[in-house]
Batch of 4 targets.
Target 1
Amino acid sequence: MTSRERIRAALNHEKPDVLPIDFAGHRSSGISAIAYNRLKMHLGYARETTKLYDVMQQLAIPEDFILDRLSGDVVQVRRLVSAFQVKGDRYKVSELPDKSPCMVPYDLNPVVNGKGDFEIHDSETGELLAVRPKDGTLYDSVRYYLEDVETLEELQEQLVLPVVTEEELAFIEVQARELYYNTDKALIMHAGCSVFEQGQQDFGYENWACHLLLEKEMVHEWAEKMTDAYVVNLQKMLDRVGKYLDVLIFGGDDLGNQIQPQLSPELYREMIKPYHKKIFRFVRDHYPGVKVALHSCGAIYDLIPDLIEAGVQVLNPVQISAKGMDPVKLKREFGKDLVFWGGGADMQQFVAGTSNIEDIYRHSSELIEIFNQDGGFVFNQCHNILDEVSPEKILAIYQAALDWREKEKMEL
């Protein structure tokens, strides 16, 4: 099988020839540019060609030689803007927070404030959008433009709806066509289109939590308008690139924290699920060749049946360290309805908490054995590889997948 055929088999709950692998294939399965540079140096590759594309999360675009080394089956159709109004269509020479070389988006021009922190401002209004602490590696969003809204009338006056531009449509179409015809990889694209997390980002976290309980009419008005706009944008994008894509991933919509969902199943069904269903079902009804994936972190076990009913076909990142997210139980109860994309290594606790490379290898091997039964699994670690993860740990995780492949080949 080609990489594309392998991923498609997994997406259709068929048994592929060997284990499908995603290495840094999208914004929620990626790798910190710092960790990527260290990995390249460890493997003997030059670092000057590294490209950072996700400004907020500081993620790198994996290069072909790294994908070949780790047998990655997936490539990403990148959106024009990853975060904070910074376009990713042009690059310039720069460096990462650890002073290693990198190419960064040409429009990334942070300002150093009096504390030594790095700030990103709106290019037109000058408003502060994000800050990276001087000793930090990630940018934190600081703008919640609806945080002072208290009434339905104020919301209607201030709400700004998302619009996909012709510039972005051309950007994604060129990428999708080139990747489809010039590689044998499966293609994935982030839709964005979050509901729960976008509410947090627009209103502010505390305000959003209160509004969900106390200002339900306003939340429904906001969500109705936003998801109507999402559907318009989805149609524009998928009319251009849907024929090339294998997976469209929504989110992030992190519905859980480490110990429980961020909202009860009852509140999810009332306030969020109708809007998830609108956008997920639009894709499934009009572009059946594109699988609907959702990125949702945390302890979301109690919400999974509702997510399936809303239209989710692929779940990422499968955060097995969160309460209730037991791999055996997840596979047994939901493996017929969901493809698990992730869950191949617990980055938060197990990998971060041990320096024993053999234990990490064994950990990933055991998870592969659970999730890969009867297909419906794409191997990837739980969420992005952060900057502090050593090359040795990364290679241990992926060597487990590569060795599993070799075992499968011998059994054919």
Target 2
Amino acid sequence: MDSTQLALIALAVGTLIGGALAALLLFSLRLRDAARARASTDLPDGTRAVLQGMDDVAVVVDSSLRVVAASAPAELFGMTEGETLAGDELRDLVRSARATGRPESHTLRLRRGSELRSVAARASVITTRLTLVVIRDITERERVEEMRRDFVANTSHELKTPVGAVTLLAEAIESAADDPEQVRHFAGRLTAEAGRLGQLTSRIMNLSRLQAADDLTELRDVAVDEVLTAAIESQAVAADAARIEVVRGGARGVYVRGDVQVLTEAFANLVANAIAYSPPGSPVGVGVKLVDDAVEIAVTDRGIGIPEGEQARVFERFYRADQARSRRTGGTGLGLSIVKHAIQRHGGDIELWSRPGRGSTFTVRLQTVAAPQDVPSKKRRRSKAAKGASGKGASGKGTSGATKERAKERAPKDSKSQTTESARSATRAKGDKK
């Protein structure tokens, strides 16, 4: 074997050995990288930026359940970087996802501050040592769904009563066709039940409108005096029937931003509720007080009051503090619910103070606005009215409403004096003739 062949064989063997060594080195490097990856807690590129852009609660935890990265909302649930993941149920969810290697989802109860919240949590393994946990707060969604179920159930139950009564009364009228007195009696009852059904339907529609996602459209600067006057006047008949005096007091000339019709209906419901639950002859007070940049409007009665354990439920649909009284007064149980939603739609809030046997006070708080510039003050309006009345009287062109009222009051006296003067003139004339 010559030297050339030996050189070629040596080259081939060297190539094989070099390739084997290179492959062994590459394999070793990959094993090292894999081991580092398994032991590393470094976040994949872009993970932290994605977390910061999320509105939901999201955290990345390592194998020891320590938070490595977190989104901004996660702090509300006490999940901060460097701290152990909070919640036994949430930790069990992460362990389950790591054990199976597949995403795991559960509905849990987590504490946010001092309250428990319902959340939908999902855990997904992103590396051998890191797990991504995404948490979505579904408390409001569950509350709305529960309210929807209650609303449907309560509405169907409440509608059955007047509908059933109308059906029975119609059958009674048909069977008593030969007795006019009975027909008139049943017809009156039928009219009352139809009115109750119409009132219930109207209030359900109003409540649905207030709960709609659309904003209030008829917004303007509203005078609180105008709203309260209209609300009190709308309940004047009921107040007179119950021998109850509604007293209005407090600040005047206050303005708020809102829908005058919605606000008037809300305060009319408060006044009607106070009248319905007050004993005959007792007063109902409506007071207005300015507190900083807000106005507090309180409606107070001296009625039966509400036990402390039931005060949180008075704003629920169809809830009645006194079922028997509500049936007598024709209440639907929707008035206070309408009030609550109306005030909330105006950015305000409502509070209740009540003691059994001492009465109740509902206090509404709304933000005030400056009085419109084109609306003159009360004193200015009075002075202008007085000047206009005196000016018209002097020129002989007419009189104001107040002047007319005074003229009416003096009319009997003036006519009497004119009659007396005419009699005296006639007497003097007769004397002259004689």
Target 3
Amino acid sequence: MPTRPGQILVTTGATQALALVAQLYVRRGSAVVVETPSWPGCLDALLAAGARPRRVPLDEDGIQPRGFSAALPAAALAHVTPTFHNPTGILMSVGRRERIAELAARAGVPLLEDLAYDTRLWDGPEPGPVAGYAPPGAEVLSVGSLAKSVWGGLRIGWLRGPGPVVERLARLKARADLGSPLLDQALAVRLLPRVDALRAERAAVLRTRLAGLEAALARELPGWTWQRPAGGAALWIRLPAPAGAAVFSQVALRHGVELVPGAATDPSGDHDAYVRLPFTLPEPRLVELVARLSRAWAAYGGTPSAG
């Protein structure tokens, strides 16, 4: 999209960008539209600012327009993760991006799109950001980062939005940390021209690890189910009924595995039938991960361990 320098704010990672936006727009008790499930880090930033989440479920194209429209009245902000949704890995369709941008603009609600979870796993066209489909005058803020596509230790992110809004956010950032580290910024400038190639290399590694994880899960935990994600680096796994992920995650911890239970992705505590399982580890460690989960599952009272 055509963008002026004054529309960009460099941040210390995408997490800081989310926190600054929450600080600007949210007051205690403010209604904020969020996807359900949603990434706990995003929810934490909004809840810390005093937000009252209005949850909207997803379908295969992303956040559902009817629920989104119903949640918008009197909301201070709306948050979506179109590319790729965390934790489900869903890629929001072009038509859905257009519709969501139109609904937010019509309601006069600022829209925050989180594009930091940006690793595409499979070949195919990738839509542009929601901001590119927004009608004139819409207030859309787009957050990106190098952490997922390059390295998690490179805490450099950015936010694109209307110039006056970015100027206000820059003042908030200056009060928070005076500025992001210059060495990290210099490294980011060197890496940005190669970011497409780096993403492709990362995706190839993740596809191999995903295949290994899926094979191990199918072998040792055949009752667990999931949809293969379009992007990102984790599986959103449904446990067999009547298992509860919050309790099982405590059992898994005693077997050396730390899980994000589905209830942590929803302020209401829903989605307790799900766990988020990353496939970022090397293949031998993923095999060991599944072996430990299998033993934990047996101890929990699920299907007996294959090992």
Target 4
Amino acid sequence: MDLSALKSILVTGSPLPDATWDWVYESVSDTVRLGSDSGGTDVTSAFIGTNPYQPVYKGELMGPYLGVDAQSWDREGRRVYDQVGELVITRPMPSMPVFFWDDPDGSRYHAAYFDMFPGVWRQGDWVTQLSEGPFVVHGRSDATINRGGIRMGSADLTHVVDQVDGVAASMVIGAELADGDYYMPLFVVPQPGTRLTQELEERIVRAIREKISPRYVPDEIIEAPAVPRTRTGKLLEIPVKRLFQGADPSSVNRATAEDAEVLDWYAEAARKYTSGA
């Protein structure tokens, strides 16, 4: 195809793998301006992305958009450079939602954005802000499922799965991998005295297709002995996600787990996955 008139390409939805950056300049055009943007449907806008006055560097988003005070913070709420942190927006944007539908006391709205840093919007992305200004987006820092740029809470999916006859409990994670792939396994705990059969898998997939969307059918359904929870009953989705992204099991705090042996089972499952065993 004649792409001589092509001047720029904008991409969004998820972090663009380095290999795709290389492919664009090798196979599409060596003069095109390739830019990556990161935003959200919830704000109908972007937070960080391209700037026509700055040079293009592989894997980098050039900086915040106009009117966006985007920063990278560590877990203690300190601004950090040249290390992975949470993407936060420290000042309000005109397009930010101010409440959720059917959330009269605002609890769901607060939990979605302000639970970690009171009064400061946390987008739920892992980013590195370079000391020169640009950002690198690594993927989701929370339990949100991101299929092709369409985000959904993991609880919305497991709520449907848990209603399938034969399922005692379930947990789903969405792991962004180093090569740009996305792995979305669904862990299912069958009801006592039963196993995860092909027939049960088919019913789970059918429920997801019909009640949510075919987009969210998992890459794999795995039978698990239990779902990992904290001592206060919260699912340990984020630590498990990090394990499947290659984190060292020693980085997971086993003391917070209700049953450390269950967490060990997931660590071993992640080890087998990452090693290709």
